[in-house]
Amino acid sequence: MREILATIGRVAASSCTVLVTGPSGTGKELIVAALHDASPRASQPLVAVNCGAIPENLVESELFGHAKGAFTGAHAARQGRVAAAEGGTLFLDEVGELPAPVQVNLLRLLQQREYSPVGDSRTVKCNIRVVAATNRDLEQEVQNGRFREDLFYRLDVIHVRVPALRDRASDIELLAMHFFRTCVEKSGRTELQGFTSEALEIMTGYEWPGNVRALENVVERAVLLGPGPYLTADDLPPRMRHELPSGRMAAAALPEGGIDLRSAVELYENELIRKALEKTGRNKNRAAQLLGVNRTTLVEMIKRKGL
Ligand SMILES: Nc1ncnc2c1ncn2[C@@H]1O[C@H](COP(=O)(O)OP(=O)(O)OP(=O)(O)O)[C@@H](O)[C@H]1O
Ligand SMILES: [Mg+2]
After folding, report:
1. What whole-number distance in Å separates Cα of residue 306 and Cα of residue 266?
2. 11-33, pLDDT tens digit by residue?
């Protein structure tokens, strides 16, 4: 996350296109807002367009505006979101959901910084920075033919990849405390003192499929309902309390075409070692304890595997 923030700091001043990808709930929108706020465009609008929430036949007019009479119901000419973002940042959220015809028009916008409103043959020039976000794997979408390759390369100038929460487990406690403080303030439950170490441990070890968004919800619920003065394991959702460290293994799937057992096991092993290192801030003694191996073995494994 520090690397991501450093990247944002480095590219904020320019107007280059930035693509933010990562699983749902990892904070992509916050990153885009931070980028805009750090840029010289901060005093100009940040206009977000949720490409997945607008009906397919309206995306184009929503983005580029339309002329009077351009389609049934277009009683008056209307400005689009691109025009609203003039001088500022246009944030194309859920860009992976864009219908193919609009992808073409977006390409022109990105290449020439110009567009034509729907039903209007005029060309309009614009001065915007484009930032796009998606929780889809765009490279994969390109390969499957669902996303235009040329558009992908236009968006993929600076690519910020936001990691899943479980891959930055040392953030969990910090974020939990952050949400604890803000929720306590909002709810007025100032008698609450914090989490028990058991509750923190469960949260740190959890997989967090819903990422930061889910963590925020879990903390909020605990603050509202927990009897206090400390929030305990009992104040966390039952599914979290019952999660065993082997939860992942139980979910392991055997694909139709089979797998290579050795490399699958190796991947699983690497994942656990990485997690133990992450959780302990790369303290090899404590990581070795967590994994039930001795320190020398762990050091040797880390070296051999290049972890
Ligand atoms: N580092 C962080 N600090 C504080 N709050 C965060 C952080 N990261 C995420 N959040 C919070 O988590 C929630 C989800 O973040 P956000 O909406 O940015 O997710 P997203 O990556 O856009 O997800 P999706 O792909 O589902 O749209 C928000 O309420 C956001 O405020
Ligand atoms: Mg989002």
Report:
1. 13
2. 999 999 999 999 999 999 999 99
Mean pLDDT of 49-65: 90
Using CA atoms, how far apart are residues 176 and 183, in angstroms rounded to an integer?
A: 10
- Angstrom CA distances, 127 to 46, 93, 107, 124, 199, stand at 13, 19, 15, 10, 49
SS3 90: strand
Nearest CA to ligand 1 atom 30: 27
Q: Using the 3D structure, point to which of 221, 241, 261 is the last residue of a domain.
A: 241
Nearest CA to ligand 1 atom 13: 213
Q: Are strands 114-115 and 124-125 parallel, antiparallel or unpaired?
A: antiparallel
Give this prediction's pTM: 0.78
Nearest to 17 by CA among 173, 128, 175, 141: 128
Structural domain including 294 reads 247-305
Residues 13 and 152 occupy one common structural domain: yes
129 with 216, same domain: the answer is no
Provide the number of structural domains found in the chain.
Answer: 3
- Ligand 1 atom, smallest distance to 162 CA: 21
Q: Are residues 12 and 135 in the same domain?
A: yes
Distance CA 269, CA 25 (A): 27
Question: CB under 6 Å to ligand 1: residues?
Answer: 22, 24-30, 135, 175, 178, 212-213, 216
Residue 89, C-beta contacts closer than 8 angstroms, at least 6 positions apart = 32, 35, 36, 39, 41, 44, 45, 46, 47, 128, 129, 130, 131
pLDDT in tens, 124-168: 999 999 999 999 999 999 999 999 999 999 999 999 999 999 999
